[in-house]
């Protein structure tokens, strides 16, 4: 089991943070963040129309044959997206922890960090990296 | 445990079959006095609640009937605009029925092609090479399962999150499609499926899936 990468978007679609641990793809799109945000935005509207009953949390995750995308959105519109492999169970509480307790807190409480552009804080990056590396299902596969 | 609906999408993203198996009704009727304690707005030719939740009425619910008479889009049955009608204190007390708006057939077509592109983007954004598109999409109220055949047709089933045996059901629907739609001499490829046998067999497959959750070999 492994964690591939993690995106944090604000409510306007700006990518606040991106980090990756094990990504095995041949190339990156130049506008990958926009594509990702656009897809999530469409999924949110798709899901709210498709749902036969009223939703509380809305979209939680999707999976393909190779990976699973976990999604968490706060009431203020911050979106945290984590891609893992298929064996990982629901990560809602972990994504919530990234937002509430450990890593993101250091940036919100830092008056020098603007919350509407890419986060430059080194403390945040290193805390997030440590946090992800201590997750029970984190292990980078060889190769 | 329930299976909500089935969609079949052709390889160009067109919806060629749709069936609603079970639609839970969440409707609330209430008598209001002036002024209305909900904020209503017009959206997509419907009057929906934009703010305020009470007694089973939720944000996003549409006005279905006023004083027991079904509305016609954003107009009442006798042709007045609902929003204007509700602004007039002399129309109170008024009884309004709210409910989750049903999808029109146009919206279903749109959603099917929307999923078609989401499916493609899902595979492009994969952190691993060689990924398929979205196979399962999970929300707190339903799970969407998608099976794409080698020929590019997508079978999509919306079901309760706890419903089991959907993978087998999707393959069963593919089997029914190849047996009753493709072998029908009046069916032209990539066009909407209007075959009675396909309907019947699909319905019974859904019943079996809901009851047992699985298909045994040769069922």
From TrEMBL, chain A:
Keywords for this protein: Endoplasmic reticulum, ER-Golgi transport, Golgi apparatus, Transport
Top-rank taxon: Eukaryota
Gene3D superfamilies per record: 3.30.450.70
Keyword match Transport: yes
SMART domains, per database record: Sybindin
Single Gene Ontology BP annotation: endoplasmic reticulum to Golgi vesicle-mediated transport
GO cellular component: endoplasmic reticulum; Golgi apparatus; TRAPP complex
Secretion signal, residue range per the UniProt entry: none
CDD domains in the cross-refs: TRAPPC1_MUM2
InterPro entries, per database record: Longin-like_dom_sf, TRAPPC
SUPFAM superfamilies tied to this protein: SNARE-like
Location in or out of the cell: Endoplasmic reticulum; Golgi apparatus, cis-Golgi network
Function: May play a role in vesicular transport from endoplasmic reticulum to Golgi.
Family indicated by similarity: Belongs to the TRAPP small subunits family. BET5 subfamily.
Subunit text: Part of the multisubunit transport protein particle (TRAPP) complex. The heterodimer TRAPPC6B-TRAPPC3 interacts with TRAPPC1 likely providing a core for TRAPP complex formation.
Record-linked PANTHER family: TRAFFICKING PROTEIN PARTICLE COMPLEX SUBUNIT, TRAFFICKING PROTEIN PARTICLE COMPLEX SUBUNIT 1
Entry protein name: Trafficking protein particle complex subunit
Phylogenetic lineage: Eukaryota, Metazoa, Chordata, Craniata, Vertebrata
UniProtKB/TrEMBL annotation, chain B:
Gene Ontology BP, a term: endoplasmic reticulum to Golgi vesicle-mediated transport
InterPro entries (alphabetical): Longin-like_dom_sf, TRAPPC
Record's signal peptide: none
Annotated GO CC locations: endoplasmic reticulum; Golgi membrane; postsynaptic membrane; TRAPP complex; vesicle
Gene3D superfamilies reported in the protein's UniProt record: 2.30.42.40, 3.30.450.70
Chief localisation class: endoplasmic reticulum
CDD domains assigned: TRAPPC4_synbindin
SUPFAM superfamilies in the cross-refs: SNARE-like
Compartment(s): Endoplasmic reticulum; Golgi apparatus, cis-Golgi network; Golgi apparatus membrane; Postsynaptic cell membrane
UniProt KW keywords: Cell membrane, Endoplasmic reticulum, ER-Golgi transport, Golgi apparatus, Membrane, Postsynaptic cell membrane, Synapse, Transport
Functional description taken from the UniProt entry: Core component of the TRAPP complexes which has a function of guanine nucleotide exchange factor activity for Rab1 GTPase. Plays a role in vesicular transport from endoplasmic reticulum to Golgi and autophagy. May play a role in dendrite postsynaptic membrane trafficking.
Family label: Belongs to the TRAPP small subunits family. TRAPPC4 subfamily.
Assembly notes: Component of the multisubunit TRAPP (transport protein particle) complex, which includes at least TRAPPC2, TRAPPC2L, TRAPPC3, TRAPPC3L, TRAPPC4, TRAPPC5, TRAPPC8, TRAPPC9, TRAPPC10, TRAPPC11 and TRAPPC12. Interacts with SDC2. Part of the multisubunit transport protein particle (TRAPP) complex.
Protein name, as recorded: Trafficking protein particle complex subunit
Species per Swiss-Prot/TrEMBL record: Lepisosteus oculatus
